[in-house]
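hey m, so remember when u said the C-alpha coordinates were messed up on ur end? i reran from scratch. heres the input so u can diff it against urs
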Amino acid sequence: MNFVPIFVGYDRVPEEKSYLHELEGGKKEPESLRQVLRARRVLKKKYGRIYVRMTEPISLKSLLDQENIRLPEASQKEFNTLCRGIGQRIITAIDRATVVTPHALVASAALHFTESGFTQNRLMANIETFMTHLSSQRAPIADTLMLDHREAVNHAFDIYLQRKFIERLTPEKEVSDSEPLYQAVVGKRHNLEYYKNNCISFFIPAAFTSLLILEKDAFQFSAADLRSSYLGLQDLFKNEFTFDPDQSPERFVRKTLKAFIDDAILMPHPTLPETYNLTSAGFRKLRLYARLLKPYLESYWIVLTFLKTSPRNDSAAKDRTKKILTFGERMYKAKEIERREALSKIYFQNALDMFNANGIKGAENGEEIEFFTQKLKNYLRVMVR
Protein backbone atom coordinates (compact mmCIF):
# COMPACT_ATOMS: atom_id res chain seq x y z
CA MET A 1 0.00 0.00 0.00
CA ASN A 2 1.21 3.50 -0.87
CA PHE A 3 0.08 6.89 0.40
CA VAL A 4 0.30 9.71 -2.16
CA PRO A 5 0.34 13.19 -0.53
CA ILE A 6 -1.34 15.79 -2.78
CA PHE A 7 -1.29 19.56 -2.37
CA VAL A 8 -4.25 21.58 -3.72
CA GLY A 9 -4.05 25.35 -3.26
CA TYR A 10 -5.61 28.57 -4.48
CA ASP A 11 -4.63 32.21 -4.74
CA ARG A 12 -7.83 32.98 -2.85
CA VAL A 13 -9.12 30.18 -0.63
CA PRO A 14 -12.84 29.29 -1.05
CA GLU A 15 -13.21 28.12 2.58
CA GLU A 16 -11.75 31.38 3.97
CA LYS A 17 -14.99 32.65 5.55
CA SER A 18 -15.95 29.44 7.34
CA TYR A 19 -12.40 28.87 8.58
CA LEU A 20 -12.19 32.38 10.01
CA HIS A 21 -15.59 31.98 11.67
CA GLU A 22 -14.26 28.92 13.50
CA LEU A 23 -10.91 30.56 14.27
CA GLU A 24 -12.65 33.50 15.99
CA GLY A 25 -14.70 31.24 18.24
CA GLY A 26 -17.63 30.24 16.04
CA LYS A 27 -18.93 26.69 15.97
CA LYS A 28 -17.87 24.52 13.05
CA GLU A 29 -20.89 23.89 10.84
CA PRO A 30 -21.30 20.16 10.09
CA GLU A 31 -21.15 19.16 6.45
CA SER A 32 -24.57 18.73 4.81
CA LEU A 33 -26.37 18.52 1.48
CA ARG A 34 -27.25 22.18 1.86
CA GLN A 35 -23.54 23.06 1.97
CA VAL A 36 -22.93 21.05 -1.21
CA LEU A 37 -25.71 22.94 -3.01
CA ARG A 38 -24.34 26.27 -1.79
CA ALA A 39 -20.89 25.29 -3.03
CA ARG A 40 -22.12 25.68 -6.60
CA ARG A 41 -22.40 29.44 -6.04
CA VAL A 42 -18.89 29.50 -4.55
CA LEU A 43 -17.42 27.74 -7.57
CA LYS A 44 -18.79 30.42 -9.90
CA LYS A 45 -16.58 33.05 -8.26
CA LYS A 46 -13.03 33.81 -9.35
CA TYR A 47 -10.36 32.61 -6.95
CA GLY A 48 -7.31 33.15 -9.13
CA ARG A 49 -5.01 30.27 -9.93
CA ILE A 50 -5.32 26.70 -8.65
CA TYR A 51 -2.17 24.74 -7.83
CA VAL A 52 -2.04 20.93 -7.71
CA ARG A 53 1.16 19.03 -6.87
CA MET A 54 1.71 15.35 -6.09
CA THR A 55 4.68 14.08 -4.11
CA GLU A 56 6.56 10.80 -4.06
CA PRO A 57 4.40 7.95 -2.70
CA ILE A 58 5.02 6.82 0.87
CA SER A 59 5.29 3.05 1.11
CA LEU A 60 3.57 1.43 4.07
CA LYS A 61 5.76 -1.67 3.63
CA SER A 62 8.93 0.42 3.84
CA LEU A 63 7.73 2.11 7.03
CA LEU A 64 6.84 -1.25 8.60
CA ASP A 65 10.28 -2.60 7.71
CA GLN A 66 11.95 0.58 9.00
CA GLU A 67 10.15 0.31 12.35
CA ASN A 68 10.44 -3.49 12.41
CA ILE A 69 6.68 -3.84 12.93
CA ARG A 70 4.46 -6.75 11.85
CA LEU A 71 0.90 -5.47 11.78
CA PRO A 72 -0.89 -8.66 12.91
CA GLU A 73 1.39 -8.83 15.94
CA ALA A 74 1.69 -5.08 16.68
CA SER A 75 0.71 -3.80 20.11
CA GLN A 76 -1.68 -0.85 20.42
CA LYS A 77 1.26 1.41 21.32
CA GLU A 78 3.22 0.32 18.24
CA PHE A 79 0.16 0.78 16.04
CA ASN A 80 -0.45 4.30 17.40
CA THR A 81 3.20 5.21 16.86
CA LEU A 82 3.02 3.93 13.30
CA CYS A 83 -0.13 5.96 12.55
CA ARG A 84 1.41 9.13 13.98
CA GLY A 85 4.54 8.55 11.91
CA ILE A 86 2.52 8.08 8.73
CA GLY A 87 0.49 11.21 9.46
CA GLN A 88 3.64 13.27 10.12
CA ARG A 89 5.25 12.11 6.90
CA ILE A 90 2.15 12.82 4.83
CA ILE A 91 1.72 16.33 6.24
CA THR A 92 5.45 17.04 5.89
CA ALA A 93 5.32 15.92 2.26
CA ILE A 94 2.32 18.17 1.58
CA ASP A 95 4.15 21.08 3.25
CA ARG A 96 7.14 20.52 0.97
CA ALA A 97 4.84 20.46 -2.07
CA THR A 98 2.98 23.64 -1.09
CA VAL A 99 3.19 26.31 -3.76
CA VAL A 100 4.09 29.74 -2.37
CA THR A 101 1.73 32.31 -3.89
CA PRO A 102 2.03 36.10 -4.15
CA HIS A 103 -0.98 36.41 -1.81
CA ALA A 104 0.80 34.39 0.89
CA LEU A 105 4.00 36.43 0.58
CA VAL A 106 2.23 39.82 0.69
CA ALA A 107 0.24 38.72 3.75
CA SER A 108 3.42 37.51 5.51
CA ALA A 109 5.24 40.77 4.80
CA ALA A 110 2.33 43.09 5.66
CA LEU A 111 1.67 41.46 9.05
CA HIS A 112 5.21 42.33 10.14
CA PHE A 113 4.06 45.94 10.52
CA THR A 114 1.56 47.12 13.11
CA GLU A 115 0.33 50.64 13.89
CA SER A 116 3.19 52.57 12.28
CA GLY A 117 2.25 51.52 8.76
CA PHE A 118 4.52 50.70 5.85
CA THR A 119 5.39 51.87 2.36
CA GLN A 120 5.29 49.60 -0.66
CA ASN A 121 9.09 49.81 -0.83
CA ARG A 122 9.44 48.52 2.75
CA LEU A 123 6.92 45.78 2.01
CA MET A 124 8.89 44.80 -1.08
CA ALA A 125 12.15 44.73 0.91
CA ASN A 126 10.59 42.12 3.23
CA ILE A 127 9.34 40.12 0.26
CA GLU A 128 12.80 40.19 -1.36
CA THR A 129 14.21 38.70 1.84
CA PHE A 130 11.55 35.99 1.82
CA MET A 131 12.17 35.26 -1.88
CA THR A 132 15.90 34.84 -1.28
CA HIS A 133 15.22 32.34 1.49
CA LEU A 134 12.64 30.43 -0.54
CA SER A 135 15.17 30.13 -3.35
CA SER A 136 17.79 28.75 -0.95
CA GLN A 137 15.28 26.15 0.25
CA ARG A 138 14.22 25.30 -3.31
CA ALA A 139 10.61 25.88 -2.34
CA PRO A 140 7.92 25.54 -5.05
CA ILE A 141 7.01 29.07 -6.13
CA ALA A 142 4.00 30.18 -8.17
CA ASP A 143 4.85 30.71 -11.82
CA THR A 144 3.72 34.34 -11.61
CA LEU A 145 6.42 34.93 -8.98
CA MET A 146 8.98 33.12 -11.10
CA LEU A 147 8.22 35.23 -14.18
CA ASP A 148 8.03 38.66 -12.52
CA HIS A 149 7.76 38.66 -8.76
CA ARG A 150 7.35 42.44 -8.49
CA GLU A 151 4.37 42.47 -10.83
CA ALA A 152 2.84 39.45 -9.08
CA VAL A 153 3.30 41.06 -5.66
CA ASN A 154 1.78 44.36 -6.83
CA HIS A 155 -1.23 42.49 -8.23
CA ALA A 156 -1.80 40.64 -4.93
CA PHE A 157 -1.33 43.92 -3.03
CA ASP A 158 -4.01 45.59 -5.19
CA ILE A 159 -6.41 42.72 -4.51
CA TYR A 160 -5.88 43.10 -0.76
CA LEU A 161 -6.57 46.82 -1.12
CA GLN A 162 -9.79 46.09 -3.04
CA ARG A 163 -10.89 43.54 -0.43
CA LYS A 164 -10.04 46.05 2.33
CA PHE A 165 -7.53 43.74 4.02
CA ILE A 166 -4.97 46.53 3.58
CA GLU A 167 -5.78 50.25 3.62
CA ARG A 168 -3.98 53.48 2.91
CA LEU A 169 -3.45 55.64 5.96
CA THR A 170 -5.06 59.06 5.95
CA PRO A 171 -2.84 61.81 4.45
CA GLU A 172 -2.42 63.63 7.76
CA LYS A 173 -0.49 60.61 9.09
CA GLU A 174 1.94 60.82 6.19
CA VAL A 175 5.01 62.99 5.94
CA SER A 176 4.86 65.54 3.11
CA ASP A 177 6.43 64.36 -0.16
CA SER A 178 6.88 60.85 1.23
CA GLU A 179 5.60 57.58 -0.18
CA PRO A 180 2.00 56.60 0.66
CA LEU A 181 1.66 54.70 3.93
CA TYR A 182 -0.44 51.55 4.28
CA GLN A 183 -1.41 49.24 7.09
CA ALA A 184 -3.17 45.93 7.55
CA VAL A 185 -6.77 46.60 8.58
CA VAL A 186 -7.07 45.50 12.22
CA GLY A 187 -10.31 43.61 11.65
CA LYS A 188 -8.78 41.76 8.70
CA ARG A 189 -5.47 40.70 10.22
CA HIS A 190 -6.96 37.25 10.83
CA ASN A 191 -7.63 36.98 7.09
CA LEU A 192 -4.03 37.88 6.30
CA GLU A 193 -2.77 35.48 8.98
CA TYR A 194 -4.71 32.71 7.25
CA TYR A 195 -2.95 33.40 3.95
CA LYS A 196 0.42 33.79 5.70
CA ASN A 197 0.03 30.33 7.19
CA ASN A 198 -0.30 28.86 3.70
CA CYS A 199 3.46 29.31 3.24
CA ILE A 200 4.80 29.47 6.79
CA SER A 201 6.15 25.90 6.80
CA PHE A 202 9.04 27.05 4.58
CA PHE A 203 10.02 29.71 7.13
CA ILE A 204 9.72 27.80 10.42
CA PRO A 205 13.39 26.68 10.59
CA ALA A 206 14.48 30.26 9.76
CA ALA A 207 12.04 31.70 12.32
CA PHE A 208 13.17 29.29 15.06
CA THR A 209 16.87 29.84 14.34
CA SER A 210 16.44 33.62 14.16
CA LEU A 211 14.57 33.72 17.46
CA LEU A 212 17.29 31.71 19.19
CA ILE A 213 20.11 33.83 17.77
CA LEU A 214 18.37 37.05 18.83
CA GLU A 215 17.69 35.60 22.28
CA LYS A 216 21.46 35.27 22.79
CA ASP A 217 21.62 39.09 22.66
CA ALA A 218 25.14 38.99 21.22
CA PHE A 219 26.71 39.51 17.83
CA GLN A 220 28.67 36.25 18.15
CA PHE A 221 27.35 32.78 18.94
CA SER A 222 28.09 29.11 18.31
CA ALA A 223 25.87 26.61 16.53
CA ALA A 224 26.02 24.35 19.59
CA ASP A 225 24.16 27.06 21.55
CA LEU A 226 21.16 26.67 19.25
CA ARG A 227 20.61 22.94 18.85
CA SER A 228 19.03 21.97 22.17
CA SER A 229 17.00 25.18 22.24
CA TYR A 230 15.72 24.44 18.73
CA LEU A 231 14.35 21.13 19.98
CA GLY A 232 12.66 23.06 22.82
CA LEU A 233 10.86 25.25 20.27
CA GLN A 234 9.73 22.15 18.40
CA ASP A 235 8.27 20.80 21.64
CA LEU A 236 6.61 24.14 22.42
CA PHE A 237 4.94 24.33 19.01
CA LYS A 238 4.36 20.64 18.34
CA ASN A 239 0.62 21.31 18.03
CA GLU A 240 1.10 24.16 15.54
CA PHE A 241 3.61 22.79 13.05
CA THR A 242 4.60 19.38 11.72
CA PHE A 243 8.27 18.46 11.92
CA ASP A 244 9.82 15.87 9.65
CA PRO A 245 10.42 12.82 11.87
CA ASP A 246 13.31 11.76 9.60
CA GLN A 247 15.25 15.02 10.07
CA SER A 248 17.06 16.10 13.24
CA PRO A 249 17.04 19.62 14.74
CA GLU A 250 20.80 19.71 14.05
CA ARG A 251 20.18 19.37 10.32
CA PHE A 252 17.58 22.16 10.31
CA VAL A 253 19.95 24.46 12.22
CA ARG A 254 22.89 23.65 9.94
CA LYS A 255 20.87 24.16 6.75
CA THR A 256 19.41 27.45 8.01
CA LEU A 257 22.78 28.82 9.09
CA LYS A 258 24.14 28.09 5.60
CA ALA A 259 21.22 30.01 4.05
CA PHE A 260 21.88 32.92 6.42
CA ILE A 261 25.55 32.99 5.45
CA ASP A 262 24.64 32.99 1.76
CA ASP A 263 22.33 35.96 2.38
CA ALA A 264 25.05 37.86 4.33
CA ILE A 265 23.01 37.70 7.54
CA LEU A 266 25.87 35.86 9.26
CA MET A 267 29.60 35.55 8.76
CA PRO A 268 31.60 32.49 9.88
CA HIS A 269 34.23 33.33 12.47
CA PRO A 270 37.68 33.31 10.83
CA THR A 271 39.27 30.99 13.42
CA LEU A 272 36.66 29.51 15.76
CA PRO A 273 34.82 26.46 14.36
CA GLU A 274 31.01 26.56 14.19
CA THR A 275 31.04 30.14 15.46
CA TYR A 276 29.28 32.97 13.67
CA ASN A 277 29.06 36.75 13.74
CA LEU A 278 25.81 38.59 13.09
CA THR A 279 26.12 41.37 10.51
CA SER A 280 24.47 44.74 11.10
CA ALA A 281 22.25 44.27 8.04
CA GLY A 282 21.42 40.74 9.20
CA PHE A 283 19.76 41.91 12.41
CA ARG A 284 16.74 43.32 10.52
CA LYS A 285 16.28 40.09 8.58
CA LEU A 286 16.52 37.90 11.68
CA ARG A 287 13.86 40.04 13.33
CA LEU A 288 11.64 39.70 10.26
CA TYR A 289 11.82 35.91 10.43
CA ALA A 290 11.42 35.74 14.21
CA ARG A 291 8.32 37.95 14.18
CA LEU A 292 6.51 35.38 12.04
CA LEU A 293 6.12 33.52 15.35
CA LYS A 294 4.75 36.46 17.32
CA PRO A 295 1.02 35.63 17.01
CA TYR A 296 1.68 32.11 18.31
CA LEU A 297 3.84 33.35 21.17
CA GLU A 298 1.24 35.95 22.18
CA SER A 299 -1.55 33.35 22.01
CA TYR A 300 0.43 31.06 24.30
CA TRP A 301 1.16 34.01 26.60
CA ILE A 302 -2.58 34.76 26.84
CA VAL A 303 -3.37 31.14 27.72
CA LEU A 304 -0.57 30.92 30.29
CA THR A 305 -1.63 34.21 31.90
CA PHE A 306 -5.20 32.90 32.10
CA LEU A 307 -4.06 29.63 33.68
CA LYS A 308 -2.04 31.56 36.29
CA THR A 309 -5.25 33.02 37.70
CA SER A 310 -7.61 30.14 36.95
CA PRO A 311 -8.03 27.22 39.36
CA ARG A 312 -7.85 23.80 37.77
CA ASN A 313 -11.56 23.00 38.03
CA ASP A 314 -13.02 26.49 37.65
CA SER A 315 -14.96 25.54 34.48
CA ALA A 316 -15.66 22.72 32.09
CA ALA A 317 -12.98 22.14 29.47
CA LYS A 318 -15.29 23.20 26.63
CA ASP A 319 -15.95 26.58 28.33
CA ARG A 320 -12.30 27.38 28.93
CA THR A 321 -11.55 28.38 25.34
CA LYS A 322 -14.47 30.82 25.35
CA LYS A 323 -13.22 32.35 28.59
CA ILE A 324 -9.71 32.61 27.17
CA LEU A 325 -11.05 34.41 24.08
CA THR A 326 -12.73 36.99 26.35
CA PHE A 327 -9.59 37.19 28.52
CA GLY A 328 -7.43 37.71 25.43
CA GLU A 329 -9.68 40.51 24.18
CA ARG A 330 -9.12 42.33 27.47
CA MET A 331 -5.36 41.86 27.20
CA TYR A 332 -5.41 43.17 23.62
CA LYS A 333 -7.43 46.26 24.57
CA ALA A 334 -5.05 46.88 27.48
CA LYS A 335 -2.15 46.68 24.96
CA GLU A 336 -0.61 43.73 26.80
CA ILE A 337 -0.35 42.00 23.44
CA GLU A 338 0.27 43.57 20.04
CA ARG A 339 -1.23 41.23 17.45
CA ARG A 340 -4.97 40.99 16.89
CA GLU A 341 -4.41 37.72 15.04
CA ALA A 342 -3.16 36.19 18.30
CA LEU A 343 -6.81 36.01 19.41
CA SER A 344 -7.37 32.63 17.79
CA LYS A 345 -9.52 29.82 19.14
CA ILE A 346 -7.32 27.31 17.31
CA TYR A 347 -4.07 28.69 18.73
CA PHE A 348 -5.63 28.84 22.21
CA GLN A 349 -6.75 25.21 22.07
CA ASN A 350 -3.33 24.09 20.84
CA ALA A 351 -1.69 26.04 23.67
CA LEU A 352 -4.04 24.52 26.26
CA ASP A 353 -3.25 21.02 25.00
CA MET A 354 0.49 21.72 25.13
CA PHE A 355 0.38 23.19 28.65
CA ASN A 356 -1.84 20.36 29.90
CA ALA A 357 0.60 17.81 28.48
CA ASN A 358 3.34 19.57 30.46
CA GLY A 359 1.45 19.37 33.74
CA ILE A 360 -0.23 22.80 33.76
CA LYS A 361 -3.93 22.43 34.51
CA GLY A 362 -4.43 25.66 36.45
CA ALA A 363 -3.03 28.12 38.98
CA GLU A 364 -1.97 25.28 41.31
CA ASN A 365 0.88 24.26 39.01
CA GLY A 366 3.12 27.17 39.99
CA GLU A 367 6.52 25.62 39.25
CA GLU A 368 5.59 24.55 35.71
CA ILE A 369 3.90 27.91 35.06
CA GLU A 370 7.03 29.79 36.13
CA PHE A 371 9.19 27.72 33.76
CA PHE A 372 7.05 28.61 30.72
CA THR A 373 6.57 32.20 31.92
CA GLN A 374 10.31 32.84 31.75
CA LYS A 375 10.63 31.04 28.42
CA LEU A 376 7.82 33.02 26.75
CA LYS A 377 8.99 36.30 28.32
CA ASN A 378 12.45 35.81 26.82
CA TYR A 379 11.05 35.07 23.38
CA LEU A 380 8.62 38.00 23.43
CA ARG A 381 11.35 40.35 24.67
CA VAL A 382 13.25 39.65 21.45
CA MET A 383 10.29 40.88 19.39
CA VAL A 384 10.30 44.43 20.74
CA ARG A 385 14.03 45.24 20.39
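this time it looks ok to me. The domain at 214-281 is CATH 1.10.10 (Arc Repressor Mutant, subunit A). if urs says something different then somethings off w ur setup not the seq
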